[in-house]
Amino acid sequence: MTSSGCKFPRHSRLKTRREFKTVLGNGRSRAGRSAVVYARPSPAAQHRLGLIVSRRVGSAVVRNRCKRIARELFRKCELNATGPLDFVVIVKRRATDMPRQMPADLLRTLQILVTQLARS
Protein backbone atom coordinates (compact mmCIF):
# COMPACT_ATOMS: atom_id res chain seq x y z
CA MET A 1 0.00 0.00 0.00
CA THR A 2 1.49 3.35 -1.05
CA SER A 3 0.37 6.79 -0.09
CA SER A 4 -0.43 9.29 -2.81
CA GLY A 5 2.55 11.43 -1.75
CA CYS A 6 5.01 8.70 -2.76
CA LYS A 7 3.78 8.23 -6.33
CA PHE A 8 5.33 9.76 -9.41
CA PRO A 9 2.48 11.97 -10.67
CA ARG A 10 1.40 12.04 -14.31
CA HIS A 11 1.96 15.79 -14.61
CA SER A 12 5.66 15.18 -13.88
CA ARG A 13 6.11 12.88 -16.89
CA LEU A 14 6.90 13.47 -20.53
CA LYS A 15 4.26 11.47 -22.38
CA THR A 16 4.23 12.18 -26.10
CA ARG A 17 6.74 11.51 -28.82
CA ARG A 18 6.76 15.24 -29.63
CA GLU A 19 7.82 16.14 -26.07
CA PHE A 20 10.65 13.59 -26.16
CA LYS A 21 11.84 14.75 -29.60
CA THR A 22 11.81 18.39 -28.50
CA VAL A 23 14.04 17.68 -25.51
CA LEU A 24 16.37 15.36 -27.46
CA GLY A 25 16.64 17.76 -30.41
CA ASN A 26 16.92 21.08 -28.60
CA GLY A 27 18.20 20.16 -25.15
CA ARG A 28 21.66 20.10 -23.64
CA SER A 29 23.13 16.73 -22.75
CA ARG A 30 25.50 15.22 -20.27
CA ALA A 31 26.72 11.62 -20.26
CA GLY A 32 27.49 9.62 -17.15
CA ARG A 33 28.66 6.04 -16.83
CA SER A 34 25.14 4.67 -16.44
CA ALA A 35 22.97 7.14 -18.38
CA VAL A 36 22.79 10.08 -20.74
CA VAL A 37 20.63 12.97 -19.55
CA TYR A 38 19.12 15.62 -21.81
CA ALA A 39 17.47 18.76 -20.41
CA ARG A 40 15.83 21.91 -21.67
CA PRO A 41 13.58 24.60 -20.18
CA SER A 42 10.01 23.36 -19.77
CA PRO A 43 6.79 25.04 -20.84
CA ALA A 44 5.10 23.30 -17.90
CA ALA A 45 4.97 24.62 -14.35
CA GLN A 46 7.35 22.03 -12.88
CA HIS A 47 10.19 19.66 -13.76
CA ARG A 48 9.16 16.72 -15.93
CA LEU A 49 10.92 13.43 -16.66
CA GLY A 50 10.95 11.04 -19.61
CA LEU A 51 12.76 7.70 -19.57
CA ILE A 52 14.20 5.64 -22.41
CA VAL A 53 15.39 2.14 -21.56
CA SER A 54 16.19 -0.06 -24.54
CA ARG A 55 15.68 -3.82 -24.66
CA ARG A 56 19.45 -4.10 -24.95
CA VAL A 57 19.69 -3.06 -21.31
CA GLY A 58 18.17 -6.34 -20.19
CA SER A 59 14.99 -8.24 -19.47
CA ALA A 60 11.74 -6.50 -18.56
CA VAL A 61 12.52 -6.96 -14.87
CA VAL A 62 15.89 -5.22 -15.25
CA ARG A 63 14.48 -2.41 -17.41
CA ASN A 64 11.67 -1.73 -14.95
CA ARG A 65 14.11 -1.68 -12.04
CA CYS A 66 16.23 0.92 -13.86
CA LYS A 67 13.12 3.02 -14.46
CA ARG A 68 12.01 2.77 -10.83
CA ILE A 69 15.46 3.87 -9.65
CA ALA A 70 15.50 6.85 -12.03
CA ARG A 71 11.95 7.95 -11.13
CA GLU A 72 12.58 7.69 -7.41
CA LEU A 73 15.83 9.63 -7.70
CA PHE A 74 14.12 12.33 -9.72
CA ARG A 75 11.21 12.47 -7.25
CA LYS A 76 13.48 12.87 -4.20
CA CYS A 77 16.17 15.01 -5.84
CA GLU A 78 16.20 18.72 -5.08
CA LEU A 79 17.24 20.45 -8.29
CA ASN A 80 18.29 24.07 -7.83
CA ALA A 81 17.20 25.33 -11.22
CA THR A 82 16.00 28.83 -12.05
CA GLY A 83 12.91 27.49 -13.79
CA PRO A 84 11.18 24.23 -14.64
CA LEU A 85 13.10 21.80 -16.86
CA ASP A 86 12.19 18.81 -19.00
CA PHE A 87 14.56 15.85 -18.63
CA VAL A 88 15.01 12.76 -20.79
CA VAL A 89 17.15 10.01 -19.26
CA ILE A 90 18.52 7.32 -21.56
CA VAL A 91 19.75 4.40 -19.48
CA LYS A 92 22.88 2.70 -20.81
CA ARG A 93 23.51 -1.03 -20.83
CA ARG A 94 26.35 -0.47 -18.37
CA ALA A 95 23.81 0.53 -15.69
CA THR A 96 22.94 -3.13 -15.13
CA ASP A 97 26.61 -3.95 -14.51
CA MET A 98 26.73 -1.52 -11.60
CA PRO A 99 23.25 -1.35 -10.06
CA ARG A 100 24.45 0.04 -6.72
CA GLN A 101 26.41 2.87 -8.38
CA MET A 102 23.66 3.91 -10.81
CA PRO A 103 21.74 6.26 -8.46
CA ALA A 104 24.87 8.19 -7.41
CA ASP A 105 26.10 8.46 -11.01
CA LEU A 106 22.69 9.57 -12.28
CA LEU A 107 22.32 12.14 -9.50
CA ARG A 108 25.78 13.58 -10.24
CA THR A 109 24.95 13.79 -13.95
CA LEU A 110 21.63 15.56 -13.22
CA GLN A 111 23.26 18.10 -10.93
CA ILE A 112 26.04 18.91 -13.41
CA LEU A 113 23.53 19.38 -16.21
CA VAL A 114 21.30 21.64 -14.13
CA THR A 115 24.34 23.73 -13.21
CA GLN A 116 25.31 24.02 -16.88
CA LEU A 117 21.80 25.12 -17.84
CA ALA A 118 21.71 27.67 -15.03
CA ARG A 119 24.88 29.31 -16.36
CA SER A 120 23.63 29.69 -19.92
Topology (elements, then pairings):
Blueprint: H1 17-26, E1 28-31, E2 35-41, E3 48-53, H2 60-76, E4 85-91, H3 102-119
Parallel strand pairs: 3-4
Antiparallel strand pairs: 1-2, 2-4
Count of separate structural domains: 1
CATH architecture annotation name:
2-Layer Sandwich
The helix fraction, in percent, is 25-40%
Q: What is the CA-CA span between the terminal residues? A: 43 Å
pLDDT < 50 stretches: none
Q: What is the count of β-strands?
A: 4
Sheet with most strands: 4 strands, mixed
Number of helices: 3
What letter string, H or E per element, gives the SSE order? Answer: HEEEHEH
CATH fold node name: Ribosomal Protein S5, domain 2
Mean pLDDT: 84
Strand content: 15-25%
List the strand order in the largest sheet: 1-2-4-3
Query: Which CATH top level class fits?
Result: Alpha Beta
Structural class of the secondary elements? alpha+beta
Radius of gyration: 14 Å
Which outline best applies?
globular
Written overview of the protein:
This protein has helices at residues 17-26, 60-76, 102-119, and strands at 28-31, 35-41, 48-53, 85-91. It has a four-stranded mixed β-sheet, with helices on both faces. It has a single domain (10-119), classed as Ribosomal Protein S5, domain 2 (2-Layer Sandwich). Strand 1 (28-31) and strand 2 form a beta hairpin. It is globular. The protein is 38% helix and 20% strand. The N and C termini lie far apart (43 Å). The longest helix has 18 residues, at 102-119. It is built from three helices and four strands, in the order αβββαβα. The protein is α+β, with helices and mostly antiparallel strands and 120 residues long.
